[in-house]
């Protein structure tokens, strides 16, 4: 059996990059939960201790990213 020589079809040139937006393993869920809890609690603690605004915003940003990872995990899980 011979295979056709030539470039692959346009659809199969490279993998779809959207798979990075779909966390599928339980490790992503644990990572997201740790980031959400640690980031949000750390942001509140930093605000109460009077830390700098950039420290507080950075910590809250990590917490919000963790919340987004957890939400995207469950959305992807419900689609499967």
Molecular structure report:
The chain is an all-alpha fold and 80 residues long. It is 64% helix and 0% strand. It has 2 helices and no strands. It has helices at residues 26-49, 53-79. The longest helix is centred in the last third of the chain and has 27 residues, at 53-79. The protein is elongated, with a radius of gyration of 20 Å. The mean pLDDT is 83.
Question: In summary, what is this structure?
Answer:
The protein has about 80 residues and is mainly α. The protein contains 2 helices and no strands.
What is this structure's SSE topology?
Blueprint: H1 26-49, H2 53-79
Helix pairs in contact: 1-2
Number of beta-strand segments: 0
Secondary structure tally, helices: 2
- Backbone shape: elongated
Helical/strand content category: mainly alpha
Task: Compute the average pLDDT.
Answer: 83
Query: Radius of gyration, Cα only, in angstroms?
Result: 20 Å
Unreliable stretches: none
Relative strand content = under 5%
Rounded to the nearest angstrom, the distance between the terminal CA atoms is: 37 Å
- Please provide the ordered H/E string of secondary-structure elements: HH
The residue fraction in helices comes out at 55-70%
Largest sheet composition: none
What are the defining features of this structure?
80 residues, mainly alpha
